[in-house]
Amino acid sequence: YALSWWSLTFPTGALTVATGNLGKLYDLFMFDFLLVGFIVIMLGIWVAVASRTLKAVIDKTIFEP
Known about the structure:
By secondary structure, the protein is mainly α. It is about 75% helix and about 0% strand. It starts with 8 loop residues before the first helix and ends in a 6-residue tail after the last helix.
């Protein structure tokens, strides 16, 4: 694990927001399903990275070079 894993959260968040905006712009029902899927993926990545960061802070391994 490394702090660079947090870089995975930005693109998935941007993809999720863009999908929501496209859904509003084109008013297509298909984007609602995609949006829910991307939200689940984004939350999964965020929870995984946050929990690994918390574990590394508790173990104090995050502070090692």
